[in-house]
Amino acid sequence: MLASFALHLGGAIVCAVAAAWVLRRGDIKRPDRRATVASLCITALSCGLIAALGPDAPMAQASESFRNLAWIFVLYQLFVADGRARSVAPIRPVIAALTFVEILQPVLLVLQLRYAVTSDLAVLAFEASVSFRIMVAVGALVLLHNLYGGASPATRQAFRWTAIGLAMLWLYELNYQTTAYLSGSLPTELSALRGLVFAALGALVAVGASQAGGSLMLRPSRKVTFQTLSLLLIGGYLAVMVLISESIALQRGDLARFTQVAFVFGASVFAVLWLPSKRLRGWLRVTMVKHLFQHRYDYRVEWLRFTQTLGQGGENSHSLYERVIQALADITDSPSGLLLLPNEQGSYELASRWQWRNIDVPAEAMSGQMASLLESGSFVVDLDDVRQGGNRYGEAPLLPDWLAAEPDAWALVPLLHFDRLTGVVVLSRPLAPRNLDWEDFDLLRVVGQQLASYIAEQAGHHALMESARFEEFNRRIAFVMHDIKNLASQLTLLARNAERHAENPEFRADMLVTLRNSAEKLNSLLARLGRYGAHGSDRREPFELAKVVKTVADQYSSLHPVQVIHADSCKVLADPEALEQALIHLVQNAVDASDEQFPVMLDVSTDGVMGRVEVIDSGSGMSPEFIRNGLFKPFVSSKNAGFGIGAFEARELIMAMGGRLDVESREGLGTRFAIQLPIAAAADLLARTETRAVTNSRTEVA
């Protein structure tokens, strides 16, 4: 009784305040304004009578009839406000019928007080009264549905909140009266809560009657919505579990008790394992966005998360490349991803992984033709669409086979910086499967452009640092070269003078040999140091590739097992001394990375155009980040006492001879370096083809 008094008194106060609000600040142009004020006043009076006398009092029941009649009249005024003259005529008989049924309530109340002298007549009168109220609630809901469903968009927006309040009122009345009819008496708990419903009705009607009420919308954040739906899902699950458990408990015997315990145990284990899962959260998020929001993404939240992910720093944070993948993957709830960046040949290679260790990516992850298509079209590739036969932009024949064959690969996102492709991100399929739509494409494309600027900025920063290191190195080496050149000149002069002035023939001969050898070594060092300039080495001659490889292997015979596992006969056009020096660098790196019992293997092969030497080890391997950012960068080394110039010098030597150096490596498995040099017989043809291509490109530009 105390709860019913407090709630109905609160409802009376809210309705009275709402009536005053609508009267003073409501939209004066609305035709239902006066009817709404009158209905709120009658509702406030009804709540006050129920609070004072109780819901069973005759005056309280009579006030409910006047309250219902007032709100039915408000419904009629809303039809008129919509301007649907043709719609008003058919609903007038319905309104008249509802009015007539509601007017019968006071008559039935008088008859009940005077003539219901027996319990059977009292029950009959109660059931008739409740049946009339159920009919009125159903009729009012039908009218409200017809009103809101057929209203114009402008009118619907104007009385949205009023319609919500009336729908809540009549739905509660329908459930309240139905429960009373089935139980044979007014439910005490539901009767007390009616005061709260009336208070909510007054607040909603006051909001809807104001001039700004039409544009006022309830916009909960996605986080609040997601948490609310999660709680509802958990609450529904628990309610079903309790209901089934109690149903089992109605049976008799120990078996029923055992079954109940087993069910609760199994359902609890299922809840602990399944409810916190990422797959369920992903499905719930997709369902929520699909049915509750106009747009898939909350752009403010996505931008804040994007900025926070990229701004993470410190020793324990991921590298920039990994953060780039994560920032893009978090948008689509992708659990992992890859980053492909261009190499010197124009194709794209793996630069970084994020939580995707079980996918094998070839050395040439994507061709230059596919990169050119992404650069010119600036589109996101839906890999599922391509697998199903789609070819919207001509990407199907250029898509790498390893991507088409990987079922978890979901989307290919280009990273464009000033209309130039700086990289490509491969996103894996979300745990809650869905199709990409226009909003995904737009957001991923824009975020990709932002990420491209970060990658370009880091590349520029590294270029400046490398340039500064080279400047320091060149400044120091200039003094070394000057001193060595002076020493070489002095030794040459000494040899020339000794040849003319030495008196002892034997001593002269020994001194002459020693000095000449020293001069030759110093001049050879000077030539090697000058080879890394703009022109490189011009010495090229045909020689047997396998012979040089075996010579290098023999040099390591007493240090570490180095085996030539295969040796095709092929003559390449290059500098044998430079090739030997490059092979020594690569083999030494392989030996340093391998255990003593694991040999380094050398493989010589040819395809008729290029000769190929592979240096293979089973060492610790290298990460994609180190291959991309450290392996071929001077002064960057993974060794404690290394200078970080061996791999860089090897690649420079090979490129100066017109060759190419590729590398494939997996952490914990090993590394494979591959040197490719032109065959002597095909070298002229390759040179003419390259010259013709350069000439044609210059002609097109002109």
From TrEMBL:
Pfam families: GAF, HATPase_c. GO terms for molecular function: phosphorelay sensor kinase activity. It is an enzyme of class 2 (transferase). Keywords: Kinase, Membrane, Phosphoprotein, Transferase, Transmembrane, Transmembrane helix. InterPro entries: GAF (IPR003018), GAF-like_dom_sf (IPR029016), HATPase_C_sf (IPR036890), HATPase_dom (IPR003594), His_kinase_dom (IPR005467), Sig_transdc_His_kin-like_C (IPR004358), XrtA/PrsK (IPR014265). It catalyses: ATP + protein L-histidine = ADP + protein N-phospho-L-histidine. Residues 479-681 form the Histidine kinase domain. The chain crosses the membrane at residues 6-23, 35-53, 94-115, 121-146, 158-176, 196-218, 230-249, 255-275. Its EC number is 2.7.13.3. This is histidine kinase.
